[in-house]
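hey so i finaly got around to running the thing on NAD(P)/FAD-dependent oxidoreductase from Halorubrum yunnanense. pasting the sequence first so u can double check i didnt mess up the copy paste, my clipboard has been acting weird all day
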Amino acid sequence: MSRPARSSSGDSPAVAVVGGGAVGVTAAADLAARGASVTLYERGDLGAGSSGRAAGVLYDAYAEDVDAALAARAMERFRAIDRSLPGFEFTPCPYVIAVRDGDPDADAVPAMVDRMRSHGRDVSLVTPDALGDRFPVATDDLAVAAVAEGAGWCDPASYVAAMGRRARREGVAVETETAVSLTGDAAELRIEADGGSGAETREFDAVVVAAGAHTADVLADVGVAVPVVPYRVQALTTGVAYDGPMVYDASAGVYLRPRPTGLLAGDGTEPVAADPDDYERGGDDWFVDSVTETLRERVDAVSGGELNSERAWAGLCTATPDGDPLVGPVGRAGSLFVAAGWQGHGFMRAPAVGEHVAEGVLASLDGTDADSESPWIDPFDPDRFDGGEAFEITEGMSVEGRIGEKR
Ligand SMILES: Cc1cc2nc3c(=O)[nH]c(=O)nc-3n(C[C@H](O)[C@H](O)[C@H](O)COP(=O)(O)OP(=O)(O)OC[C@H]3O[C@@H](n4cnc5c(N)ncnc54)[C@H](O)[C@@H]3O)c2cc1C
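ok and heres what it spat out for the 3d tokens, dont ask me to read them lol
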């Protein structure tokens, strides 16, 4: 079936969003809420990509000004969505960044905390003794810690499902089980969609590519190269009861959070490029062993007993050369946009990024982004790269990555 005619009418621009993860589904709902005629394409079910495999750790403890503002807005929206969207629950929970004795990153923590506080984030530097007095975690081997109070956790799949329902209510046409490819040029950007009702080609005023680990492949269809490289990370759950804070043991590179029936822990970053169509989705034995060891050292409830991992799994994050995402117009003026490259922090930023993308796309379409009040965030400009650069994949949560002096 072919439907080449532009589907916009009157003042309502037709926008396609490619990718039904946390970012795409939020952008789609927010675009529709602002009057766009939106079609959301997802090759599987909503949340089938990284969002459905994420840990749901949410915090606003960022040292860079743009990151801190975006995270503050995201947390504000998670709380509001908890009140307004049935099926989604945000659980407030402090987030601890802990650095061990002998780890050179310990020296950087006070300055990191100062920068977070300078952006209004409720983060404090604490001694290991004070941390141990407050929480059921081992602190004897720590040099220093920071506690971010404005944090929390959620079930990421429930966010995508609830936001998907909101998108439908706002009038978004949600096409699941529909893989798309892009064709055409700047003047006539087209989507070839292959879904349940067969193949069809459609033209849109704007296309937003929020295809997670497949983003570079989708954009390559129309000759746009972006350095967004997938890499594998892992997580596990266990039934051990834990009612402490979320902890990032920066020296071990392991994070953990409570969950209703136990504890979730992760990292296991593999700093090599992964094939999004062919990667190992189960957790590795080495990952389970190394996380088990860290949990024994850190969590009082685990130290004496068995961990008994219930489930271990892997998913993909996406790296960029400078660790910042690509968000905004890309390749061709006005009609093609990208939102990807989260370096492990895409889910927690999705409520703010989706809103930002919706406002930016609509401003670009009506020409109001041409003045000095561009809605887009400069450090995230997709065109800051050629697309062909070679770079090392680094883990996104490290203290070094958070210190925030790169911009
Ligand atoms: C184990 C693990 C733990 C994590 N923990 C956290 C965490 O605690 N906090 C956090 O912030 N982040 C976390 N992340 C990272 C987080 O999952 C991602 O940054 C985030 O989910 C990215 O969302 P997205 O919408 O950009 O991408 P995705 O959720 O991957 O969505 C992209 C979608 O596009 C679809 N798609 C791809 N190609 C096409 C096509 N051609 N046509 C149609 N659809 C297409 C895919 O099927 C997919 O559903 C974790 C990731 C993993 C794997």
